[in-house]
Amino acid sequence: MKTPPLGKAADRVEAADKLTGRAKYAAEFTAPNMAHAVVVTSGIAAGRDGLQYKRGDAAAALKVAAFSVEVTYSTPVQHHHPLEPCAALTEWSGEALTLHVSSRNVNGVKAVAAGVFGLPPDKVCVVCPVVGGAFGSKGFTWQHDLLAAAAKAVGRPVRLVLTRRQMAVLAGHRPETRQTVGVAADQGGKLVALRHAATSTTSPVAEFAEACGEMTKRLYSCGNVDVSHTLLTVNRSSPVFMRAPGETPGLFAFE
To answer: Which residue segments constitute the domains of the chain, with CATH numbers given?
Structure first.
């Protein structure tokens, strides 16, 4: 079922204004299960099947346990901000393309560039002598890695270095999460049930899930464990891996 749009169309708000709080909005709108933003339609609301995990019956064990607690925690968006921002320089020599990039995924950049421009792989050379800091932001092929189109159009090398503000919106981020954690024990203090339900956001063009519950299912000896992940689609850039993906927000909530 398609979610109807909320509110009215507005003029573009610059990312810098959003980040600094200078942006002013005429009103706020809410919708069921909305984590953040205006768009909440999602074709993947059930989450990714590979991240769902059950053993035993945690729901039943939580109901009859001598002691139980259930708490909801949330974590905010986190951005990659290494000292060295993402940068790229592209140049053509006939039908051969050379890309100078700061990337931890040179093979991926090469494959994407070859596919986008219809080139044989041996006609694409990716040069990356130094990566610099990344925290996960340089493991993907971003728009600035494909400056080749501009270089071809102007017939000369083209260089782009993201500004600090641009790094917040053009190089991925760790998505915000909302996590409900339930723990139950018997009279002797032994764990009898663990439940970890995590919701994180993704973009309209990606299905990236922050795997918050991956550690929960293996941390403790417990016969009844229920781990679930749900995705909400929001109108913003795609989230990506960030240092200790999943474990950082997941262990914050569970521990």
So the answer is: 33-74+176-254 (3.30.365.10), 87-170 (3.30.365.10)
